[in-house]
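Thread: quick sanity check before group meeting

JM: Hey all, I'm pulling together slides for Thursday and realized we never actually wrote out the predicted structure for the chain we discussed last week. Dropping the sequence here so it's in one place. If anyone has concerns about the input, flag it before I start.
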Amino acid sequence: MELTDWLLAPGERGNPSTRLDRRRPGGVSWSTGNKVRPLVHGAVYFAELLAAIRGQKAGDLLLFTDWRGDPDEPLDGPGSEIGTVLCEAAERGVIVKGLVWRSHLDRFQFSERENLHLGEEINAAGGECLLDMRVRPGGSHHQKFVVLRHPGRPERDVAFVGGIDLCHSRRDDATHHGDPLRQPFAAAYGPRPPWHDVQLAVHGPAVGDVEATFRERWEDPAPLSRSPLLRLRELMDREDTSADPMPPQLPDPEPCGTQAVQLLRTYPARIRGYDFAPDGERSIARSYQKVLRRARSLVYLEDQYLWSPHIAACFAEALAANPGLRLIAVIPFRPDQDGRVSMPMNLLGRISALNMLHRAGGDRVAAYGIENHAGTPVYVHAKVCVIDDVWASVGSDNLNRRSWTHDSELSCAVVDEAPDPREPRDPGGLGDGARGYARDLRLELAQEHLDRGDPEGLCDPEDAFRAFAESAAALDAWHDGGRRGPRPPGRLRAYRTPKLSRTTSALVTPLYRLVADPDGRPLSLRRAKSF
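JM (edit): ok, ran it. Output follows.
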């Protein structure tokens, strides 16, 4: 297997200004020799993050970015609140640097107040947390990662990358009883909304790439905000919003595993753009377009949105071109979190995307929601894609146009150079063979959704597709029959495409066609047909 078949060459990234593709001899745009572990569920991630931070000492480095940070969110019980843990690290001499999205006004139910408070706590303890509004109008910094470096102890270096914010509602586990601290949420998910999410723990040379991504943003000379009101307030309050210099970057950790890791990003094109991405970067979109051309057997998705026809078209083309290709999508039953006025637009976008996929793939396409054993819907916040058990991506990016063009995003594409010893045959038919990491990730997620204790009968893509369908059919039948008798095993429910009322459709459809995307990005901002 050639890694160049599955990963982007430097010229394919579309951003010659980034340092990522200049960090290694020969211009290789990924690292090899990594050990990557999926951390499924916020409770698993938070416990590991807590142990890693508490193991740091004076002179170590802690870097983080976030979309939203709630300082009172416990990582693992009382005394482990995020704000407390980060402040304690700064107080014992750890170099703590953070970049948190400044956010829009709280009346739009974003995160302005929470992120401000987290930054104030860290700064008072001796760290430095900046509120970063260097985004397109209406956009956000959506990256979610933490980097821990240890001078003299590189074996402890780790980067956590994925879709889990350091905030309320995220600390759930496999039981899906929800986080006791919740953010405002749609009533359909109950008083403690169950939450499904994934983060990666990355060890090896790729840690240096994640750190380089942080440093590019930290060292960007552009002001943190272009808002005249915000800048005037900073002047009046005599706020110091400049980023202090960081110590030189340490050498990358030594190889310790078999996985190749490529960092994929989205940065929007801005007037007087980023120093490290003057014309933006769309390597997430470009990577999907490349690997989907190789898909032959199974595309497995878990995604918060899947509601843009522009994105669905990439998958539909692969389905139409390959009659043996199947697609499984695990998505939330309700596409928005908090029941805002965007709900009809979200539904119309999802209906459009799913209809496009079904037209291309027919019964080779299956979409599911998940519920806990009490029957409460689980909110799927994960951003996972596994293609042919070879290439796997986990990150902050959703399958919507906003994540592919407009917000800042970070994802890890992983290809294991070690074949999966359980299944030596080639599921994709291209001579690549299943890889251990990608298959393990898919099987871990499938076993949870199916309530299985082992992967028996799930390695083969056709068998897995059939197992999902049979499990969902059994649970749907139990619900439709009045929930009589024992509940069947499994948590999957077939996603039944909702129908908008005639009045709602008449009101929303013209606006949808004008905007052309349920994320609300006006056509004038998105003329380009190519990513």
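AS: nice. The two ends are 27 Å apart (CA to CA). The longest strand covers residues 31-40.
JM: adding both to the slides.
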